[in-house]
Amino acid sequence: MSEAPKAGTKLQSEAGAEAIVVKPPSEGGLEFRSGGPVQLGKRYTCETCNAELLITKAGDAELVCHGAAMGVAQPKTLPSSD
Amino acid sequence: MANLAMLLDLAADAMGDRIGIGDRDGGLTYAEIRRLAVAAAPEVEAVAKGSLAFADANGVAVPVALFAAAWAGVSYAPINYRLPAQQQQALVDRLGTGYLVETETADSWVDKLRAQAGDEPVAYPEDPEHPAILLFTSGTSAEPKAAVLHHDNLLAYILNAGDFMSAEEDEAVLMVVPPFHIAGVAGTLSSIYAGRRIVPLSRFTPESWLEAARREAVTHAFVVPTMLARIVAAMEAEGGVDLPSLRTLSYGGARMPVPVLERALELFPNAGFVNAYGLTETSSTVALLGPEDHRTALAGDRRRLASVGKPLPGIEVEVVDEDGNLVAPNEEGRIRIRGPQVSGDYVGQEGSVDTEGWLVTGDVGTVDEEGYLYVQGRADDVIIAGGENLSPGEIEDCLLRHPSVDGAAVVGVPDQEWGEKVAAMVTVTGDVRADELTEWVRQELGGLKAPKLVEITEELPMTPTGKILRREVRSKLSSS
């Protein structure tokens, strides 16, 4: 299994989708596979570990972590403060 | 391993035609901001020598400059454009920058970029050579320190605090805090990420703020406490003002006097209030008191109106004693902060984060039984009179409740008998004598806290964003 990518690492899929690691996974195995599509600007999370990725280019792919497709993260509920 | 340019790339790709800054008719779209930033980047990279200095007020040039620096891989260094020329030059010299955008040249700079800009996408550097932002802090020493914020710090804050494109198309934020303040930098980044149009206001007066808010139907605004005090005074003079579009009013940057907040809450009954506590060194907000908490406090226990709320998820904010142990609820201690958005680095000097990653803020505070944080003030500003620690904020709030007082700064001045004695500098709106104010405080807070010296003055010494310059107040009152 490949090493867990650190925060800030970019992942690319063959279908052209791209994501950036916001919160790193607990171990290797994070990758794109065909499926999806993933949407630009949405964050995807892993149910098993705390991994979170932000999609920077949409595409016909899905993110997999701990053997399962990552789902769209819950919307943040914080009010804007700046 | 990341670049905050990513935020503008996302915005320009997903909502390129949405207006990012300016009015609804003539503003710059996200796609246009990117085109201009990308057009500037090659020259910036070639000549900047590590940083792009920006010495102008809020306006469309701000995001263009910020992202031009990001695309060029150099630091964006906004400086106080209201300083005398010599002082500005000293800051520019300290930066050693080869690229300066200033008030006199900003408009023509943007125009030139419009003419040069192409449509080809340009990739930003994934691993920029220089840190994202350099900000001169309003320190207590004579020479301001240049705080360093890394791309990772800012991205950790922005991505944690909100969602991409969370703003509805009609949302607009009134940006009046200057570009060289952390709230101005963070506000620009978070507004772009959210897709919320920035309405820049280059100079604050309460009248121009209210006029811009109405004209542009702003839904959000961030102000520092002195601005809110003046807005509230202007609204009270007009007998109330209707701003039906305002949904969220955020504030921070200095302590919010509770009497000002109470009046504001009554004048904006339909807006949600947000108190944001953070430092330059923490890439802005680390804790906030949200709209629900404000409403609950207003209707019930008003003490909570003085709280800065709870830490953002993923950030540790602790109140500890000298040995680093957590203090008990309501016990005073030092506030320290740890998390990915915390930098604590400075140019040319040691960073302020300890070996365990904690940034010791220099603020004294408490946490109540429910985990709400209260910031009493800088440790240096605590007054030690007759062996007791007195918080200037409490005495200032008391003075501000006097109908004739509209500004108050309380410090300790040397006293042979007591060590220090409480002294106050105030600005007033009507006829009131110094001894009346001493008596006013004595009635409410007791003899020890009543200022032994009260000086009525035209203007309190302050930073551009309304932080009281206590060193100056102390020095003036000590020589009285």
In summary, what is this structure?
The complex is a heterodimer of chains A (82) and B (480). Chain A is mainly beta. In chain A, 0% of the residues lie in helices and 45% in strands.
Question: What characteristics describe this protein?
Answer:
heterodimer; A: 82 residues; mainly beta; five-stranded antiparallel beta sheet; three-stranded antiparallel beta sheet; 45% strand; globular; B: 480 residues; seven-stranded mixed beta sheet; four-stranded antiparallel beta sheet; 14 helices
Report on the architecture of this protein.
The complex is a heterodimer of chains A (82) and B (480). With 82 residues, chain A is mainly β. Chain A has no helices and 8 strands. Chain A has strands spanning 10-12, 18-23, 31-38, 43-45, 52-57, 59-65, 68-69, 71-72. Chain A has a 5-stranded antiparallel beta sheet with strand order 1-2-5-4-8, with no helix packed on it. Chain B has 480 residues and is α/β, with parallel strands linked by helices. Chain B has helices spanning 5-15, 30-47, 61-72, 85-95, 103-116, 151-161, 182-194, 206-215, 225-237, 258-267, 291-299, 392-400, 434-445, 470-478; strands at residues 19-21, 28-29, 51-55, 75-78, 99-102, 133-136, 146-149, 172-175, 197-200, 220-223, 248-252, 272-279, 284-289, 310-311, 316-320, 333-338, 345-346, 359-367, 373-378, 383-385, 388-390, 405-415, 419-428, 453-456. The termini of chain B are far apart. The A-B interface holds A 6-10, 20, 22, 40-43, 54, 56-57, 75-76, 78-82 and B 1-2, 6, 9-10, 13-14, 126, 152, 155-156, 159, 161-166, 173, 183, 186-187, 190-191, 194, 196, 220, 222, 248, 250, 252, 272, 274, 276, 284-285, 288, 290-291, 312, 340.
Q: What percent of residues of chain A adopt helix (DSSP H or I)?
A: under 10%
> How many strand units of chain A?
8
Q: Give the number of helices of chain B.
A: 14
Instruction: Kindly report the spatial arrangement of strands forming the biggest sheet of chain A.
Output: 1-2-5-4-8
How would the global form of chain B be characterised? globular
Q: Could you tell me the mean pLDDT of chain A?
A: 91
Q: Give the oligomer, counting copies of the same chain as homo and different chains as hetero.
A: heterodimer
Q: What best-fitting shape of chain A do the alpha-carbon axes yield? A: globular
Low-confidence stretches of chain B: none
Residue windows where pLDDT falls under 50 for at least 5 positions of chain A: none
Largest sheet of chain A: 5 strands, antiparallel
Terminus-to-terminus distance of chain B: 55 Å
* Biggest sheet strand line-up of chain B: 9-8-10-11-12-13-14
Classify the helix fraction of chain B into a percent range: 25-40%
Strand content of chain A: over 45%
